[in-house]
Design a protein that fits this description.
alpha/beta, Nucleotidyltransferase, domain 5, eight-stranded mixed β-sheet, 15 helices, 8 strands
């Protein structure tokens, strides 16, 4: 089922419906395409307590064509817990609406793996947050009975890079104080309503109305894709450049190693420690600090201040990874 708009042609994968995800008009892909942009809405920030309530992805085939995957998910959490969460006040997905949706299950996992297959780049704004929740959802599914493999292992076997548009924005627009998606929309003068016009309006009670408001995951990915076009132009980058440069991206295998260093530091081998240092050097080399300063080899003091700042002001899986990489880099530089 294809829908036409003035700016995009897209396929809508509707909740609860089973159909081939590649059932769309043939589009000749351009160099660097396709790539994925994805986002989630959740019941909160905790990977242990909270769950995904909406997962949206677009597979960008060219600057004018994309396919869409969009699912609402029943978090199977108490109604009172959902209503009292700060997240509900942001995305406004009512528990009664979500209770009508399916919990995250095998069919979701199969469709997600199919949509992500043969993709080299997956973009997201603060992408590690959303990736962490997706990994948790796959982990909670347990083992695929047909293959005998854990679902999460099948997800992590996909060979793509996670690219963080927030990290890219920090370098592209050092004059900004904040790098929320709403800040970038304002800075780049992006018309949210126009960009999200292709998103179908769902008027169910307690569901979204899709009027171009952020914190609807599908609207967010459509807007993020416009941000990506601007970032590529501003930074004079191509997707091939991102393939060679890890300043803005993470390989899934690298994330597993970093998480190992966070959760079980004594089990990290000398070879893994050396690899972690290399990852940290590349990832931290263009991080921005207050007053627009960038890291140099002599900036160990700034690294230490930034670790203290993140611990005091921020929280989440992405922040844990940043802290660990900074501490690895501090240790490496003090030993030289």
């Amino acid at each position: 089922m294809a829908n036409q708009s003035t700016s995009m042609n897209f396929i809508q994968h509707q909740a609860g419906q089973k159909r081939p995800l590649n059932d769309c008009q043939e589009v000749e892909t351009q160099d660097g395409f396709p790539y994925i942009v994805f986002d989630t809405e959740t019941t909160g920030l905790s990977l242990k307590k909270d769950r995904i309530v909406q997962l949206s992805m677009i597979k960008v085939l060219s600057k004018t064509h994309h396919e869409t995957f969009d699912e609402y998910i029943n978090p199977e959490l108490p109604r009172s817990f959902q209503l009292q969460s700060k997240a509900y006040k942001i995305h406004n997905l009512h528990p009664d609406f979500l209770n009508q949706q399916s919990p995250f299950q095998k069919t979701h996992a199969e469709d997600i793996l199919k949509f992500l297959d043969d993709i080299k780049y997956v973009f997201g704004h603060n992408v590690l947050f959303d990736w962490g929740f997706l990994v948790t959802a796959f982990t909670n599914l347990g083992v695929n009975e047909e293959t005998g493999k854990p679902w999460v292992k099948m997800l992590k076997q996909l060979d793509f890079k996670l690219v963080d548009t927030m990290k890219m924005s920090v370098v592209a627009y050092p004059e900004l104080q904040w790098y929320r998606l709403s800040d970038l929309v304002k800075h780049l003068d992006i018309d949210k309503v126009k960009v999200s016009a292709s998103a179908p309006k769902k008027m169910k009670a307690g569901g979204p109305t899709r009027k171009g408001e952020l914190h609807d995951a599908l609207v967010d990915v459509l807007v993020t894709n416009q941000v990506i076009f601007n970032l590529m132009d501003t930074l004079h980058l191509t997707l091939d450049d991102i393939s060679e440069d890890s300043k803005f991206s993470y390989r899934i295998s690298d994330l597993d190693l970093i998480n190992k260093a966070i959760n079980s530091p004594s089990s990290v081998t000398e070879g893994e420690r050396k690899l972690l240092t290399e990852i940290a050097e590349k990832t931290m080399s263009r991080e921005r600090f207050s007053k627009g300063r960038f890291l140099k080899d002599s900036d160990t003091g700034l690294l230490e201040k930034e670790v203290d700042y993140i611990i005091k002001k921020r929280n989440g899986i992405a922040d844990q990874i940043e802290i660990k990489l900074r501490r690895i880099l501090i240790q490496h530089r003090t030993q030289r």
